[in-house]
Structure formats: structure tokens, C-alpha cells
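CORE FACILITY INTAKE
Project code: CF-77B
Contact: R.S. (postdoc)
Sample description: multi-component assembly, two entities in total
Requested service: structural model of the whole complex
Turnaround: standard
Below are the sequence entries exactly as provided by the requester. Do not edit them.
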Amino acid sequence: DIQMTQSPSSLSASVGDRVTITCRASQSINNYLNWYQQKPGKAPKFLIYAASSLQSGVPSRFSGSGSGTDFTLTISSLQPEDFATYYCQQSYSTPRTFGQGTKLEIK
Amino acid sequence: EEQLLESGGGLVQPGGSLRLSCAASGFTFSNYDMNWVRQAPGKGLEWVSRISESGDKKYYADSVEGRFTISRDNSKDTLSLQMNSLRAEDTAVYYCAKESRWYYYDSTYHYFDYWGHGNMVTVSS
């Protein structure tokens, strides 16, 4: 199974900050990488597919990059509604494993 | 509007059984693979199982293999998860998720674009 490791596990930031979350795969997954956002008590929301393609309706302040084993999710200017937990997921193979999550908190 | 509505969760004793259902609407259910994903209290997301469009291919996480069975009824737009021999570590919110595909040249990208609201399963005596 492919293991996905996110860093950091938690992050404190302020509104307007630029933040970057990293996701590393245990083997190459090309660009078969998705990102999700989850708020407390809610289902995950799909953000990005194919490492860098934004799902329709997702604000352009979100961006993704990477290929192979190393990937990043960047939020260019944090908004109050962005404070949540973010998960990466590989879709290269089944099981479609998730990272452990990165909790983005208000500083 | 695409919607997934789970039902069937609750409290069950260790060793017991429970059946979850997920009713789909707003899209052609039979055209999509479907998944179950769970989240233990205070923990991250864990993929549980996947079923192909027609139901002929089924996949399971090692942690549930042999105890859980995924199925679907395309005539009723319903996904199910039969959970047997339940353990305390199966306690979680269970989500059903629609798996969409994007085709780009010779590559096919899969992602979970719609999720149900989640259904709590508690395994405890």
C-alpha cells in the first residue's frame, strides 16, 4: 500500500498569510494526487485533483503542485473560512490512501 | 443537485453486525464507482471499500477484509456496507463517496467529488 505523509500536522496562521502544506508519497504516484478540506462536524470537501487542477467553484487562492512523491497545497491569502483540516489522497492505486491531515488554526 | 444520504448507523455490541446504506440522487448512479470512507473520533480519514460501476469489482482495506461487504443496487441508486464481527476500533463516522474520473490523454484521474453527510457507528458493550 502507498503511504501518504503530510507535514506539518498542525499549523497556526493569520488571515492574509500565505501557507503551504506538504504531502509525500511512499512511492511515485506521478500526479495522481487529490486534496480535500474538512471542517469540524462536516464531510470533506473536494478541492484539487491531478495535483494541480482546481475543482470547479474552489477559490483561486488555492493551488496545488508537485509530481512523483512530493506535493504541496498552497493558500495564497488565508481567509477566515479556510481554517480547517486538509487531507491529501493518492488515486494512483487502491487502497486510495489519505494523509493523516494538517489542521490549520487561527493564530 | 448531487446528493448522498447515509442511514443505518447506531450503537452495536462487539461482535455484532450493522448495515449502512447510502441513497444517491442527482446523478446517474450506475455510471460511477462508489466508496466508503470512515473517520474515527478525533482521527483522520481512512478509506474502507470501493465498488465498481456494475458491482463486479470490490476492494477492501486490510482492516475490514473478510468482515465487511460492499454492494450496490443500481436499480434503486443505493450503496450498502454490511459490517459483521464489529470491533471497538470500527467505531467511526462512515461516509459514502462518489468517485468521479477525469480523462486526460492516456491518463485517468480519480477523485471523490461528492460525499454523504456521514453516519456514526459506535461499537461498544
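Facility notes:
- Chain B has a mean pLDDT of 97.
- Chain B touches chain A at residues 35, 37, 44-47, 50, 59, 61-62, 95, 102, 104, 107, 109-118 (CB under 8 Å).
Invoice: internal transfer
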